[in-house]
Every structure is written in structure tokens, then in C-alpha cells.
Amino acid sequence: MKLIEKILDKSNVRIALEKVISNKGAAGIDGMKVEDLRDYMNANWTSIKQSILERSYKPAPVRRVEIPKPNGGVRKLGIPTVVDRTLQQSIVQILTPIFESEFQENSYGFRPGRSCEQAVLKLLEYLNEGYEWIVDIDLEKFFDNVPQDKLMSYVGRVIHDPDTESLIRKYLKSGVMENGMYEATELGTPQGGNLSPLLSNVMLNELDKELVNRGLRYVRYADDCVIAVGSSASASRVMHTITKWIEHKLGLKVNATKTHICRPSKLKYLGFGFYKSSQTKQWTARPHESSVEKFQRKLKSLCKRSWSISLTDRIAMLNSVIRGWINYFSIGAMKSRIEKIDEHLRTMLRKVIWKQWKTPQKRTWGLRKLGIDKDLAKLTSYCGNRYEWVVRKTCVARAISKEILTRRGLVSCLDYYTIRHSLKTN
Fold it and tell me: Is the pTM of this model over 0.85?
């Protein structure tokens, strides 16, 4: 069976269809929602398949969406139609096992069974072997600047199937729609499509092979690549020669202002920072300060007192954020920091509850229900709306205790971190 036939096989497309539906996501330029996808594919699959085999199929342009970056600027995403997402996913499912055998060990992004966590642990391994000078490579707008002809030559070198190559090239050249205007795509592979992660690894696998041939210790997650070397002189030489190689051999742009040499304590990689323990003399990972601040801002936004939402729904949203953030960073050392965040979160929730109770009568009732004696409850209830003072300096902190909030369903940041960290490090 030819490769394109495997891609278009009904069982493969059905798996892709279910994956696209389960991932949900926004509609493309045709406005079709994932809820309508199954019926459309059942009705039109025969003609879609035939047009692909005849090479007459024409993918729709992607819909341009701009996502603000935390440090300013925007990240441009391209949202394909749900039909094209299904077809791209069908391609990915067949090509991934083929390319996996080509990819290098130290590439961790968008690959089955690999994660950011593994990339960080590998980097720590290098640091603790004494390779404490870091070359941090920044590829300028990588997904927008990929040379398509070069990329397709790397694809063709492995899969040897003209029909599949033709379909992939059509997706690269499908263009974008922005504000009702069509724009051709002669460069790049739009972020947002199911194919882009695989194609980015195909392109950057060439960089991986070059780094391996040079005997360099590196870690790459998608286009985030760091190289660990043993001296300042080595770092300078590697940065200069690798930058030159990337630009000449791959045709990619290296951001000269962001590509730099640093010590591990100055590095931010995949949201992590690094420090050397004074006790063990070993390098350890922890959430970078900017990652912690972003987490705290998110918790604060979910604890706005002006937000009219039930405590149950608020706690459910908080729990989702807490679990997601701690699951990602649980290999990091952050017990004392997370303890403070946990305490502050409970303080914010006490202020929310104090405001929701509103009247002295309701506040007295609430405190009494939580075990505060009548006189103290009444006295506290007439302290007014000095929220910070009330929840810190009165019996409110004792009444709305950690145990009470846990009973209401709140996940303790500290307790959850302790469990997850123990599982990851033991």
C-alpha cells in the first residue's frame, strides 16, 4: 500500500477525526465547527479522498489569529478549517513513526513519550557534569521563516512518496486570510496546524545532527535550543560557528539580540530557572521568577472580589490552574515559595467570602456556623469592609481555616506540590 493510501485509509482518518473533535478548537475561515465535522465527512469523504488522489484537492487558507505574548508583541497562529485539521492529523499519524526513527535523542518537543520535564532533567545532567556555560540559541520567528523548498527536500529524503509530498506542500502554500484579505505563504509553516510540530522537528533535526556530529551537549524542545559547554571560550566559538551554520545551511534567521551566552543561574529555559544548592553543590531546577509571577497573577485574577461567581465555581477554576501549573513545575525545588503562595491564596479567598457575606447579620451567621462563639462573631462582623485587616487580624482566619477550604474542595498548593514532587523525584 502506498503511503498516501495509508494516510487516506478509513480507519486512520476516523482516528484523526475523533482526535480533532476531542481537541475542540476554533473554526477556520469556513466557519464549520467541530460539532458539524463528523456529518460533513460522512457525506463528503468519497469526493475529498478522490480529489486528493487526483492531486486536485485545494486546502483552504488558514485563519490568522494573533495571541499576545507576555513580554509584548504577538504570536501569529494560523487556524485551518476542521476538515483540513483532520487531513493534517491523518498525515501526522502515519508519518510520525517514520520520522521518529530519524530524530535525535536530545530532541524533546512534540514527540510521543517526550516532555519539557525530560528536557530540563537532561540539561541538569550536563550542568552537573561541569558544562556550566550556556549558549542559548534564539531562532527569529522560526515558524514564519522556514524555507519551504528546503523543508520539503528533507521530507522527501525520508518518505519517498510524491503524492504525500504534494499534499504537504499544498498545506504549506495554502495561504492565510486576515481581515478578509488573502496573503500567500511562500515561507513558513503556520503555527496552529496539526502538521506544523512534526515539520518543525523535520527541519530542526538537521541542526540536531550537526550538533551531534560536533560532539556538543545540547537540549532542544521545538525551536528552544540550548548548548552546554565547559568554558567561556568554547561558548563564544560555538555560538559564532553554529549561528553561521544555521543561517547558511538551514536558511533560518538567528536573533542576534536574543541569542547569548550565560551562566545557568541567568538562564530561563522552558519556564524554569536554575540554581546551585549550597548544600549539595548540585544544580537544581525551579520555576523561573517570571513563571511564578505569572502564576500568582492568574490566581489573583480568579480571586477578584468584584467577580460575581459562586465559590464552588471559583474553587473549581482555581484547582484547574493549580494542578496544571504544579504538574508542569513539580520537578522544581519550590517548597518555601509555594507555601507563601498557598497562604496568600487562602487570604484572598477569605476576602472573597467576607465580601459575599455582605451584612453584619450574614457575617455573624457565617462565623457562628464555623465555630466562633456568639460574642466574638458579632464583634468581628461589625468591623466593616477593611478586608485585609479583617481576614488577617481577626477570628476570620481561624474560622475559614485551611481545613474548611479543603472541605469546600480547594486544592492546597503546598500539599499538591509535596505529593507531585515526591512522585517525580523518588
Answer: yes
